[in-house]
């Protein structure tokens, strides 16, 4: 059984769990999401690796990262996202997957972050660090040399050396360029920043993704923790019990995943308890459009 | 790319625990070698009191080796693991080593130490602080002495000790002890500031000390300092 079949097969189990947890007052949102271009199902909560998995060869921190990835896989696995820009994060993921021997639950996502002339060499190195031969998703990182790099990735996908092609940005940068690429290029995924505080994507990018059938990965859901620190001690919105949310982290993830255009969110963490908390967010009710508007208003009033 | 969109935090590639643990790992691998550079600098201070008016070869040799070892061992072997930007700094460490050793050894006999009491005292404080107080800061992070930053195996105390030496020396040797160590202190301050560490104040204080000590070029109002000049 190949990885894609495993991920698709697991969708039914998770969907059942979701049905028992859904509430009639909230939107029925599955723990799994469909990639529009290929119909592959992936878990809605993945994991990012920016900073958190950049631990070098430190055996203590490598063990900690392995425990985080083990918990992630125990909770259903899904997208692990990295980049050559993230220091030793790729090697840390490769170390963990080798230790755990459980890459089947992983939807492997990485990026190309160099000029097109060096892209093939970088992709080869990326594969070696992960310890895998074929990625489920490769993205052009921060639009670097995007025309030539997208051409390369499309060619790899055409020859089935790659599952999906995407393009990324973060911090709300270059949304105009991203919109043009989404409108003109047959990308499977777009990755962008979207959270309670950074909502620019709602205006054009998220609707465009829905219209064009592009899966959306949301990075920086907590603004690298700053959002949660800002909200710490502030009252949860009145709808929190209805959403079975007990923390601002859960509220933040539900706000993101409640948007119908969002396919996957990739919070990064160094803590096993946070991984489990993040993964279980989708087993409780999600906010519908009206509730999301109220959440945004509540956040703005804080 | 609009660089105005970026904030200092966006350039920080690693978490504080990964950074601080680097020193522990680096020190463990070569222990007790990290103690060598501070001890050699202590011997230099003794030599300084004995031969007050000329540059001790041992001091330039120690500092030169410290920069070469810091660049080749700590930066290129350990720090680059979590900060690929650091690889661009390695040549600067080798260059600093060559400059100190080159000027110190070749022109050492012609190089006198400063006669300024102010600069001499400030320089000594910087060298002593970098050698013996910097490692102790590890205890404030919950690490033992093995996690300490030592001259020669960590960038910041190496830079601060060199700045101190630059104040004690004079002429070309003093001049080449300032630019690269000051740059290291600026980068270190920004890094530690982005990490939210109180230790950001140390390189900042070193920079401020150097600027105050060197500017204005003459300080007639400071009696002893002016008299020495």
User: Which regions of chain A contain 5 or more consecutive residues with pLDDT less than 50?
Assistant: 1-25
The CATH topology of chain A corresponds to: TIM Barrel
CATH superfamily of chain A: NADP-dependent oxidoreductase domain
Specify the overall morphology of chain B.
Answer: globular
Elements of chain A, N to C (H/E): HEEHEHEHEHEHEHEHHEHH
- Give the fraction of residues assigned to helices of chain A: 40-55%
Strand tally of chain B, please?
0
Question: What's the story with the biggest beta sheet of chain A?
Answer: 7 strands, parallel
The helix tally of chain B amounts to 10
Oligomer: heterodimer
Ends apart, CA distance between termini of chain B: 50 Å
Topology readout:
The complex is a heterodimer of chains A (about 300) and B (about 230).
Chain A: H1 3-21, E1 32-34, E2 41-43, H2 59-74, E3 78-81, H3 89-100, E4 106-112, H4 116-130, E5 135-140, H5 146-158, E6 162-168, H6 175-184, E7 189-193, H7 205-212, E8 215-219, H8 226-231, H9 248-257, E9 262-265, H10 272-280, H11 289-301
Parallel strand pairs in A: 3-4, 4-5, 5-6, 6-7, 7-8, 8-9
Antiparallel strand pairs in A: 1-2
Chain B: H1 16-30, H2 36-50, H3 57-78, H4 90-106, H5 117-133, H6 155-168, H7 172-176, H8 179-195, H9 201-214, H10 223-228
Helix pairs in contact in B: 2-3, 2-5, 3-4, 3-6, 5-6, 6-8, 6-9, 8-9
């Amino acid at each position: 059984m190949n990885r894609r079949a495993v991920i698709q097969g697991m969708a039914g189990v998770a969907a059942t769990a979701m049905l028992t947890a859904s509430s009639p007052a909230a939107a029925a949102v599955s723990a799994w999401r469909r990639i529009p271009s290929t119909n592959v199902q992936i878990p809605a909560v993945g994991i990012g690796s920016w900073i958190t998995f950049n631990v070098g060869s430190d055996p203590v921190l490598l063990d900690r990262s392995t425990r985080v990835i083990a918990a992630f896989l125990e909770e259903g696995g899904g997208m692990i996202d990295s980049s050559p820009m993230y220091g030793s994060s790729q090697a840390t993921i490769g170390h963990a997957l080798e230790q755990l021997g459980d890459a089947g639950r992983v939807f492997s996502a990485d990026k190309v972050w160099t000029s097109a002339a060096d892209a093939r060499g970088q992709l080869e190195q990326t594969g070696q660090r992960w310890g895998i031969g074929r990625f489920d998703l490769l993205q052009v990182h921060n639009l670097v040399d995007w025309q030539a790099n997208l051409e390369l990735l499309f060619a790899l996908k055409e020859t089935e050396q790659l599952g999906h092609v995407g393009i990324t940005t973060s911090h709300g940068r270059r949304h105009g360029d991203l919109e043009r690429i989404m409108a003109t290029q047959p990308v499977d995924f777009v990755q962008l920043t979207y959270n309670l505080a950074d909502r620019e994507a709602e205006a054009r990018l998220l609707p465009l993704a829905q219209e064009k059938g592009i899966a959306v990965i949301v990075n920086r859901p907590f603004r690298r923790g700053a959002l949660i620190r800002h909200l710490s001690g502030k009252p949860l919105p009145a709808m929190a019990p209805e959403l079975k949310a007990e923390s601002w982290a859960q509220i933040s993830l539900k706000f993101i995943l409640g948007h119908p255009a969002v396919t996957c969110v990739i919070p990064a963490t160094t803590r096993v308890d946070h991984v489990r908390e993040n993964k279980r967010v989708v087993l409780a009710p999600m906010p519908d459009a009206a509730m999301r508007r109220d959440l945004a208003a509540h956040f703005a009033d804080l | 790319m609009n660089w105005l969109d970026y904030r200092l935090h966006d350039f920080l590639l690693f978490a504080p625990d990964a950074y601080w643990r680097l020193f522990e790992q680096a020190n463990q691998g070569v222990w007790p070698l990290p103690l060598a550079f501070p001890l050699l600098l202590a011997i230099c201070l003794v030599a300084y009191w004995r031969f007050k008016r000329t540059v001790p070869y041992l001091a330039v040799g120690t500092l030169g080796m410290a920069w070469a070892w810091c660049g080749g061992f700590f930066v290129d072997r350990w720090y680059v693991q979590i900060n690929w930007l650091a690889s661009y700094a390695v040549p600067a460490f080798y260059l600093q080593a060559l400059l100190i050793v080159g000027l110190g050894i070749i022109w050492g006999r012609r190089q006198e130490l400063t006669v300024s009491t102010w600069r001499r005292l400030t320089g000594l404080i910087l060298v002593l602080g970098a050698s013996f107080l910097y490692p102790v800061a590890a205890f404030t992070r919950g690490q033992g002495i093995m996690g300490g930053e030592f001259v020669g195996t960590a960038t910041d105390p190496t830079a601060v000790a060199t700045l101190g030496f630059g104040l004690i020396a004079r002429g070309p040797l003093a001049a080449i002890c300032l630019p690269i160590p000051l740059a290291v202190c600026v980068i270190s301050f920004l890094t530690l500031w982005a990490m939210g560490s109180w230790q950001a104040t140390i390189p900042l204080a070193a920079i401020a000390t150097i600027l105050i000590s060197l500017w204005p070029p003459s300080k007639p109002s400071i009696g002893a300092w002016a008299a020495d000049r």
